[in-house]
Amino acid sequence: MVAIVFVGVAVLFSFIPVGLWISALAAGVKIGIFTLVGMRFRRVPPSLIVNSLIKADKAGLNVTTNQLEAHYLAGGNVDRVVNALIAAERANIPLAFERAAAIDLAGRNVLEAVQMSVNPRVIETPVIAAMAKNGIEVRARARVTVRANIDRLVGGAGEETIIARVGEGIVTTVGSSESHKEVLENPDLISRTVLNKGLDAGTAFEILSIDIADVDVGRNIGAQLQTDQAEADKRIAQAKAEERRALAVAREQEMKAAVQEMRAKVVEAEAEVPKAMAQALREGKLGVMDYYQMQNILADTSMRDAIAKGGPVQGSGDSGKK
């Protein structure tokens, strides 16, 4: 019986957080023992709620048990919200519990936001390249000092939007400059252009300053583009020239074929001459003496051609012997 009683008392005290209730009473926080038992049934850790209540009460905050339990059951971080409220109270930043809970449930780190409101953060952009009107590339890197705007944390854009907008401002400023020398001589042109655009609109931050950390001269993109264009024009001209050459070669081959065809016709016509002469001899239209006279004329013509070309005279030896 003693053992059973001892086990029963142990189970009772383990289920009923008497120690937490005594701690809350010692800290001046009024919370009922049945409220702690109810937390057990609602699957809310009593130690988390009691410790957060003690911290809030010592800091002078008016936070109730129901508010903390509701925030925990909604999936929020109770301890972080209480710490953020205490930090905001110490920094004299107006922040209600409902606002802090909404920021926490939205996925934002409310404690970090309060700390950033007190101690602004410096966001450094990556190296952003832009081209001036003279074709010279300018590479710039900026440092943006921002402070969290608690009223716009819910629904406001994050750091990525700030970096993107600053990059857009750098590209706009450099692209509108007549020469890259203007940007190198006056880097504050970028800062003024970016600040005048109101880049913090719709974001969870307030931009305090934009400082150009580094400005360098990059590639001569204009000259490179002209070189690429010239190379492309050269290739086009070479292609057209190759096309014309191919057409000329094809035309030459066609002319050679036409010459061979005409020569074949000449040979064919010459082959008809002996036939015509034989027909004329048979019909009596051409005499034998006429034929020999024509042969002598051909021989004389051949001799004259040979003499004109400086070659040996064909048939002169045979005619002499005859």
From TrEMBL:
GO terms for cellular component: plasma membrane. Keywords: Cell membrane, Coiled coil, Membrane, Transmembrane, Transmembrane helix. Pfam families: FloA (PF12127). InterPro entries: FloA. Residues 252-279 form a coiled coil. HAMAP family: FloA (MF_01562). Homooligomerizes. Found in functional membrane microdomains (FMM) that may be equivalent to eukaryotic membrane rafts FMMs are highly dynamic and increase in number as cells age. Flotillins are thought to be important factors in membrane fluidity. This is Flotillin-like protein FloA.
